[in-house]
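Sample intake sheet
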Amino acid sequence: MKTRKRFGQHFLHDPGVLKRIVEAIAPARGDAIVEIGPGEGALTRPLLEHLDHLTAIEIDRDLAAALTLQYPATRLSVLTADALDFDFAVLPAGFRVVGNLPYNISTPLLFHLARQAGRVRDLHFMLQKEVVDRMVARHSTPDYGRLSVMLQVRFAMKKLFNVASGAFRPPPKVESAVVRLLPLQEKLQFDEALLEKIVREAFSARRKTLRNALPLAAADYEALGIDPGLRPENLSPADYLRITKVCVR
């Protein structure tokens, strides 16, 4: 089937890579798994070998229609929808998410899914390698930024393996990687909207010092034990959570 540029479609076809992804997910019969962007079903088929039922979200109507012809609804539920607009809160607690995410929407989709951290069991994604490197980056490193903070306050993440562009049709111009996200055992309490605002402001001026990028009272920085001469990239996710709590007062 012809790919559509507006959907950022690159279909995974390498059987070795597909096998490694399924092994990493380790699906069990009764798992409630949602696949985002199944495309032509390259990952859908091996997943269904291990599952009683799979839910798939596909924005391309033609691809969605083709998938519904391959499996009965008792095995595969295909939702023709944009994952960015989909309300994942309607799914049962403990659901799992997998997918080869389109590069053009990967970051906003990750932010969208992060809000379900308290209800999801785990997430396994194929993403642009550069995005995965940003997700798992430690503070004070070049790849560390807003995405790192907003995901690391909710998930423990691990890059599992890289995937060469030749594993896709058509081959993308970048390398990919598979990443696993596990919700943190400790459910942290924080004002999500305020944290997002603070982190966005900080990293929009990441080359400035904190006293200029994120102006707080000197007494607040002193109480937090944070040097206002540092840059936003030098603060850990825990530091940003502590700043959020100060700002709530």
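Comment: The two ends are 56 Å apart (CA to CA). The chain is about 35% helix and 20% strand.
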